[in-house]
Amino acid sequence: MDLIQFVEKEFATETELPKFGAGDTVTVSYKIREGSKERIQNFRGVVIQLRGSGSTKTFTVRKMSGNIGVERIFPLYSPFIASIEVNKHGSVRRKRIFYLRELTGKKARIKEKRF
Fold first, then answer.
1. Is 58 helix (H, G, I), strand (E, B) or coil?
2. CA distance to 21, 62, 90, 99, per residue, from 93 (Å)
3. Is 2 a domain residue?
């Protein structure tokens, strides 16, 4: 076994995370430390991509703040993530939906997946 994989397996913390993918609308509760204070900030948006594997897996969330698109990359197994809540499951055909960056308004809507 590779030494890096061995160390990653030793320090891995098993956290219960919901299943989500590209096109899903999620709310990420992220711990922010300001000086000695710590607070939780919510970031709600559409998952654009999942990338990586194992403990280095990351996901990108995009939201519109006014007329400006804001993207943030979160490590999936970060100790600063308090919780991840899936609000809507989106129906998309691709794993990476970067075409959403050019779309605005009603064109940027994603059809909801019904179960």
1. strand
2. 11, 18, 10, 12
3. no
